[in-house]
Amino acid sequence: MKKYLCAFLLTFILNIPLFQIVDAADTDIVTVNATVLSKSNCKFNSAAAAIPFGNLDPANPADKTVNTTITFRCAGSSPMATFFISDDDGSYETGPNANRMRHTTLSSEHIPYTFSLNPTSGTVPKNSVQTLTISGTVNGIDYQDAVTGNYSDRVIITLAP
């Protein structure tokens, strides 16, 4: 009883809240999280693809376009699946959509090329095989003064979700 009377007097005289004197309070943090699964689950069927420009002749610099395809399928809980496809512009890009191949032994030598994907997005029936067309073009003007040798690049394609 004396404890509560002292607490009441301290609260009244010093204007200290009663709950601070009688009992100590404590707090803790609870983390709350969840993962919402996509209604579309898209995966590539093909393991890898290549854009082989082959031999480029600086004496006869002509534009060269090469196409390849990759297949993919979307599953999931929805009868229709929505997908998005993008690329990272390659290992030696100088900016968005500024792809370059690098000489395999002379790291300061590059040849620019264009790289495109079709389609880049869409809605398709669940479990139907879809084809992604990948196109690459190297312009003759871009290799007419190139150093002799092999050039290559690596582009990562992302299929979401």
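The record above closes out task 2.4. Task 2.5 opens with a second protein, given below.
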Amino acid sequence: MDTIPSNPTTSSPEPFVTVPVIAELLGVPESWVYERTARGEIPHRRVGRYVRLRVSEIEEWLNEQTEEVGG
């Protein structure tokens, strides 16, 4: 099982994580994450046929969604 990485304290770049990690973080099904990436709604990268995401980018996207809903 993938684990949610903590923010690195070094200057190394943030690692990419898999869809199951983001789904667990958001408390949604993996299919929801795949659907949103296919629509281009959430930030992600493709490595061949694999989808990879960064936790910080998802958190930023989520904050933007919350601001839009909240007014």
